[in-house]
Amino acid sequence: MCGIVGYVGMRSAQQVLLDGLEKLEYRGYDSAGVALTQRDGIRVVKSKGRLSTLRSKLEELALPQSGCGIGHTRWATHGEPSETNAHPHCTDDKSVVLVHNGIIENYQELKAKLLRSGYTFYSQTDTEVAVKLVDYYYKKTGTPLEAISRAMLRIRGSYAFGVIFKDYPGKLFAARKDSPLIIGKSENGSLIASDVPAILDQTRRVYYIGNLEIAELSRDEIHFYNIDREEIEKDVVEIQWDAAAAEKGGYEHFMLKEIHEQPKAVQDTIGAYVKEGHIDFSETGLTDEKLASLKRIYIIACGSAYHVGMVGKYVIESMAKIPVEVDVASEFRYRDPILVADSMVVIISQSGETADSLAALRLAKDRNVPVLSVVNVVGSSIARESDYTLYTYAGPEISVATTKAYSTQLIAMYLLAIQSAFVQGKLEEGKVTRLLAEMETLPDKISRVLDDKERIQWFASKYANAHDIFFIGRGIDYAISMEGSLKMKEISYIHSEAYAAGELKHGTISLVEDGTLVIGVMTQKDLFEKTLSNMVEVKSRGAYLMGLTSYGNYSIEDTADFSVYVPKTEKYFTTSLAIVPLQLMGYYVSVAK
Ligand code: GLU
């Protein structure tokens, strides 16, 4: 989800839009565009790549000054990053023009309907469907407000829209559901923006537009309506933030901001593939026949994505009984691996550009093994070259230490495990329904873990001077430990190691001495006692113990010096919750240092 800015007023809309979009650049984007109202209609100018390219293009065009327009920086979710797919999107005669942040989940269904009504499509985006749907209702009703509200009733998914109509040159419309959007009032006009920094130069007076509400802006007036087109009153709010803080949405660092964006990222990823209680992989190209034929899966990745692969192995093997090998990409590509028939390679990469993972993908393709990629960036090299692509919907991840992309990759693994198990006859439909229903509770449960962050912050501040930290666990808890340990060393520069709990005693335990922090991850019921006994072992060597488990396992308090609890969930999904306190630990230790 990237940037939206809109303006109607006495200043040059072109300048306001470009300056505003520049303030949102930190969010990352792949293309940009503006639409400006002119005397003879609406002019749309777009370009792939940097905003500076769009700026030069506009300078060259030297359009007459316009007092109304909308601008967008895009982070592609549907359709590759390109000038054609860039926003604004418009009807063929440019009578209705729209920018959009978010994802329209039922865009295929709406597109089919519009095609039947004679509409044609020039892009691969879900957004073009939205603008044509608004146009469809505009032609029917003749009023922008009714057209927008009727389109909103048909659209499922998330959106922040900015819309302008050729017939209403001094007006700007906005609407939202589950994507951020604010409305601003300045001395010289009215504005919309997806985030505060975009308009902070212009005004600090904003209105918060709620879900399923519409705003109608002109130079001097702003009106708000609910979806039934009844006018509603709103109070203006004075923004207190300074500009720098606002760019991180009030968070001190992007990492903390992204940790907090996890409920939404997880929800968006589940929403993209779980439709009416079933997994729908049609967008990925992966068929049930393909999954049913699989006898082996190779998961290849680097860093945190490799740890996701480790979780994937436990979950897929346990649910679907398909053997899974997990490999670090830089090892796999150089070791002449044996790839058996009826297998599939799964490549996991946030950026879709990880060089070793791309090389591993090419190796698999050379050996005629089909490749499924799990990537966050649409149109990236790995996505383009693989046979099937399961996009994660984390949005741009700015922090180098991954958090929200990792969490969405986990969802991809659960979905792959459940669907493979189902089509291979290892899971019955009732169980699938129950698992999916439980998966849908994860965003809320992650939010609950985040609510407890002050305790972790307090504990982390005590351990900022640690020299060594050990993370131990068994099974899935070992995979969680690996990621927790990587987060810790990556950002706090404290040496840390993850160990399979039962393995520690074979030598490494000699490094545990008085005061060494050992974090035991114990979310798996059947392994709880086992790991607890390893905790007792290290305690007898003087270790200071932090235990991480689910609510209810309070016996941990007898052994651990500090305990953190996460909500109960299905055993396969515990990583999604248990990783959050470990991300926070890594973050807060590094801040304290
Ligand atoms: N889903 C839209 C697209 O792919 C909007 C993406 C965004 O939020 O930037 O174009």
Task: Give the SSE map.
Layout: E1 3-9, H1 13-23, E2 31-38, E3 41-48, H2 51-61, E4 68-74, E5 89-90, E6 96-104, H3 107-116, H4 126-141, H5 144-154, E7 157-165, E8 172-177, E9 182-185, E10 189-193, E11 205-208, E12 213-217, E13 222-226, E14 231-232, E15 237-238, H6 243-247, H7 254-260, H8 262-273, E16 274-275, E17 278-279, H9 288-293, E18 296-301, H10 303-320, E19 324-328, H11 329-332, E20 343-349, H12 355-366, E21 371-375, H13 381-385, E22 388-391, H14 404-423, H15 429-439, H16 442-451, H17 453-462, E23 468-473, H18 476-492, E24 495-500, E25 517-522, H19 528-539, E26 544-550, E27 562-566, H20 574-592
Parallel strand pairs: 18-19, 18-20, 20-21, 21-22, 23-24, 23-25, 25-26, 26-27
Antiparallel strand pairs: 1-4, 1-10, 2-3, 2-4, 5-6, 6-7, 7-8, 8-12, 9-10, 9-11, 11-15, 12-13, 13-14, 16-17
Helix pairs in contact: 3-4, 4-5, 8-14, 8-16, 10-14, 10-18, 14-15, 16-20, 17-20, 18-20
The structure holds glutamic acid.
Glutamic acid binds next to strand 6 and helix 4.
Overall description:
By secondary structure, the chain is of the alpha/beta class. Helix content is 38%, strand content 24%. The protein has 20 helices and 27 strands. The strands form 5 sheets. The protein has an 8-stranded antiparallel β-sheet with strand order 3-2-4-1-10-9-11-15, covered by helices on one side. A 7-stranded antiparallel β-sheet has the order 5-6-7-8-12-13-14. A 5-stranded parallel β-sheet has the order 19-18-20-21-22, sandwiched between helices. α10 (303-320) runs antiparallel to α18, α14 runs antiparallel to α15 (429-439) and α18 packs parallel to α20. The longest helix is centred in the last third of the chain and has 20 residues, at 404-423. The model has no long low-confidence stretch (mean pLDDT 95). The structure holds glutamic acid. Glutamic acid is lined by residues 1-2, 74-79, 85, 100-103, 125-127. Residues 1-2, 74-79, 85, 100-103, 125-127 line the site of glutamic acid.
